[in-house]
Amino acid sequence: MDTFGVSRTVLREALRTLTSKGLIESRPRVGTRVRPKHAWNLLDVDVLDWYSRVAEPMAFALKLQEMREMIEPYAAGLAAASHTDDTFNALAAAHGSMVAARNVDEWVRADLQFHLSVLTACSNELLIPLGTLIERTLEAQLRLNAKRADVFNASLAEHTAVFDAIRDRDATAAREAMAGLLGVTRGRIEG
Question: What pLDDT, in 10s, does the model give residues 126-143?
């Protein structure tokens, strides 16, 4: 409390927040201890963001990539099969912004919206929150990938293949196109 100049109330609230996120545990007569990393709630937006800032960057990028490879191809297939006019229009707007992007910042914003729009278009309310969960860390990964490419929009053709398959309601092609796009992403991470 002295170090940070805060009251007991503020300290208690901070400890309550860290406990709810699985980072610490408090027990009478034992005190407050940091829990082992495997017990942390990494599916909490704040914890994931904090962890991404201190984790070894390449290892974290590959873990995030693994998660994306498990989820996004299937989500693209679902989006092709079940998108609505509204969710497809959002995806089309994101794709249009990618086509129109003139610099890395515009590209990254549009790329992020594209991937979030695919999750929304899949019409599965349990998958949509995953986009919110990984949004900040995904944005950082997309920025890194854009900077590692020869040109920032080097993966436009792969994104367009995903977009076209979803537009055409071809679930198999959408899954394959997203898997191909993520394969390019993995190559940039590992390269």
Answer: 888 888 777 778 787 887
